[in-house]
Write a structure and sequence with these properties.
Blueprint (H helix, E strand, L loop, with lengths): L17 E2 L2 E2 L1 E2 L4 E2 L2 H18 L2 H17 L12 E2 L6 E2 L6 H18 L2 H15 L8 E4 L2 E4 L11 H13 L5 H17 L24 H16 L2 H9 L4
Antiparallel strand pairs: 1-2, 3-4, 5-6, 7-8
Helix pairs in contact: 1-2, 1-3, 2-3, 3-4, 3-5, 5-6, 5-7, 7-8
Length: 253
């Protein structure tokens, strides 16, 4: 997650080989680009540029932002080219699926590059990306109604999935662009209230959160640390103490 990239060493390199400057992820039986991995690579380089002022890091970040603009689909999403068994579900997503997490991570990078370049293509991509988050899964989008609110789906399965990490990270991406696009502020306000009011439903009462609302299974190793970081960020952005409360009690590794 980009909020932890500040601790990367100056000589950090992508754990995946770069093809055309974009990570190519090895999934065992095939290799493919992943929009989340790509956006995170861009955010890591942006963070390193801020810290060390290495110009080539800035060029890497902007290269990924340009790639995101080029590869965004007309529906506003960054689509995956491979099948994906959705965690916590019996469903497998077919090629062409999108993810709210990809939208959030991409917007976070595009927002940073836009503020420095004022290139309108980045802002247009942000606006387009938000539309997918405003559209229900049933209509091809990446959000779903939840207790009269809205939840962002990392895995847009037919039945609800509600991956907590995916929703929290997407929220941070929406917040990043809220002062650029008024609709993002409205979306953030509604979605952050939804997850704040429902965090208790993700509590295992054993020191960790469930991975998703659908699965009610423990998060994979390392996820609790990421979720704690996201909760602390949302607490600082909103002043809601419920985020701090669960960041403290979900103390598993």
């Amino acid at each position: 997650m980009y909020q932890t990239f500040g601790g990367l060493p100056r000589d950090w390199k992508s754990p995946y080989p770069l093809v055309g400057g974009i990570p190519l992820v090895n999934y065992g039986t095939f290799k493919a680009r992943n929009p989340v991995t790509s956006a995170q690579y861009g955010l890591a380089n942006y963070s390193l540029w801020l810290r060390y002022h290495d110009h080539y890091r800035w060029l890497n970040a902007r290269h990924v932002a340009d790639w995101l603009v080029r590869t965004q689909y007309p529906n506003g999403k960054w689509e995956y080219s491979f099948y994906e068994p959705a965690p916590g579900s019996t469903e497998t997503l077919a090629p062409g699926w999108g993810s709210a997490l990809a939208q959030g991570q991409a917007m976070s990078l595009l927002e940073r590059v836009y503020r420095l370049t004022h290139k309108t293509s980045y802002l247009k991509a942000i606006v387009h990306a938000l539309k997918a988050l405003q559209t229900p899964v049933a209509k091809g989008g990446l959000s779903r109604r939840f207790d009269n609110g809205i939840f962002f789906e990392e895995y847009p399965t037919r039945a609800i999935n509600f991956s907590l990490n995916g929703d929290l990270q997407t929220l941070i991406g929406v917040y990043d662009v809220a002062d650029l696009v008024p609709a993002a502020q409205t979306l953030f306000t509604r979605a952050v209230r939804t997850v704040a009011d429902n965090l208790a439903r993700f509590d295992s009462h054993a020191g960790y959160s469930y991975y998703s609302f659908a699965s009610q299974t423990p998060c994979p190793p390392g996820y609790n640390a990421a979720i704690r970081s996201e909760l602390h960020i949302l607490a600082s952005l909103t002043g809601r103490k419920v985020f701090t409360h669960y960041a403290q009690i979900w103390n598993a590794p």
